[in-house]
Amino acid sequence: MRDVTNVVIIGGGPGGYEAALVAAHLGGNVTIVEEAGVGGSAVLTDVVPSKGLIAVADVMTRIRKATKLGLVPADASRTSLLDGVRVDAVAMNERLLKLAAQQSADIQARLNEEGIRTIRGKGRLDGTEHVIAITPDGVEERLSADITLVATGTRPRDLADARPDGERILNWKQMYNLAEMPRKLIVVGSGVTGAEFASAYHALRCEVVLVSSRRMVLPSQDSDAARVIQDVFEARGMEILSQARAIAARRTEDGVIVTLEDGREVEGSHVLMAVGSIPNTEDLGLEEAGIELTPSGHIQVDGVSRTSARGVYAAGDVTGVYPLASVAAMQGRNAMYHSLGDAVAPLNPRHISANVFTSPEIATVGVTQDQLDSDLVRGRAIMMQLHSNARAKMQDLNHGFVKVFCSPSGVIIGGVVVAPGASELIHSLALAVRRRLTVDHMAQAFTVYPSLSGTVAEAARRLHGHGGDEGISY
């Protein structure tokens, strides 16, 4: 009988706890060292509370549409159902933090059931075969590690002249401490985080100014999708300052002033700084262990999450591969499958599905429009507007589309969905990409009528039979 393998995981976020569960299942003796609480920032201060906030905003969006659907206030003195709704910021944020804490507790309970030890504290490598765990009261424990996984995540990036104070100048981890709804929220940064918070707070009837350094919001997304979101934001009354770069923020007596690079100043009650993130790779003993970092400070890993040091793996945002909880989880699982001798396939970026939780949402998988347009990938595409879908008409959905990409032979290689619930609709396309299904496979599968998923199948039907690279339709 072989000796039990000691697995030590630094960081208890999705990459860490999913890796721990796999390692325990495969017979490892597993210890997690986590400073804030299992679930990490994804559960405690990022994904769970932010998507909970967006769920509240979605309710407000539905209420806003109620009059068009024939729902009017019983009190004739009110012109809209929204007139009778007020956001209780304290109650809302307390609920969001409670949800996060409960999710963390549920994960901890599962880890306990599997016999996984959790140490509350910081961890650092001591060579490649030991990890030092340091508890909050300074007690150190040296752990033997046959396999080590580093999953320490990232933290919000700060500007030197816009340091968060947790009251008026905020990063995204601090948004759930607000005791009142902002009178006017300035959001600096129009990437995924900035766009999601801007969308949510604007739906919650907060005046929002979005400061975007680019010509269009969401510059990393499909350009057609980004254009829809920008058009929706502006149609709903959000102010977008395009090609504007914030360089400073300062408090006033009852608010903030954000200074732009061109000298303009923007006044508001609060400002959210969403200007990127920094990997948590300091003071971990990485360089001493021979672990290579990228120029951005992320840990360099291969397709199965190996670092340059024998026996040391890394997973999640700290690797800079994709800042997604689902990717972190997959990287963590792959690391344990590989290190403990189970079958594993390298992470394939084209199989990753991602979502932007604006209203409407943007979901993507596989190859991109840019890759097709630049001839990096040969294929065909079709884009179908959502407003022609019967279910969309019933729900008064006027913005969005389904875009499907296929190879010249008809194999589905990617897609984009812009719609409410796009995060659910993308799964069929993700499965098609993963299993190399053809447009005929997709077209011939039954869909419910009426349903938004019917547009996915209709797009596949439209792609049937088009030869070569023809058939691109917008």
Automatic annotation (TrEMBL):
Residues 353-459 form the Pyridine nucleotide-disulphide oxidoreductase dimerisation domain. FAD binds at K51, G123, D317. Binds 1 FAD per subunit. One of its GO terms (molecular function) is NAD(P)H dehydrogenase (quinone) activity. Pfam families: Pyr_redox_2, Pyr_redox_dim. Residues 6-332 form the FAD/NAD(P)-binding domain. Keywords: FAD, Flavoprotein, NAD, Nucleotide-binding. NAD(+) binds at G189, S190, G191, V192, T193, G194, A195, E196, G276. Its cofactor is FAD. InterPro entries: FAD/NAD-bd_sf, FAD/NAD-binding_dom, FAD/NAD-linked_Rdtase_dimer_sf, Pyr_nuc-diS_OxRdtase, Pyr_nucl-diS_OxRdtase_dimer. PANTHER family: MERCURIC REDUCTASE (PTHR43014), NAD(P)H DEHYDROGENASE (QUINONE) (PTHR43014:SF1). Belongs to the class-I pyridine nucleotide-disulfide oxidoreductase family. This is NAD(P)H-quinone dehydrogenase. It comes from Propioniciclava sinopodophylli. The lineage of its organism: Bacteria, Bacillati, Actinomycetota, Actinomycetes, Propionibacteriales.
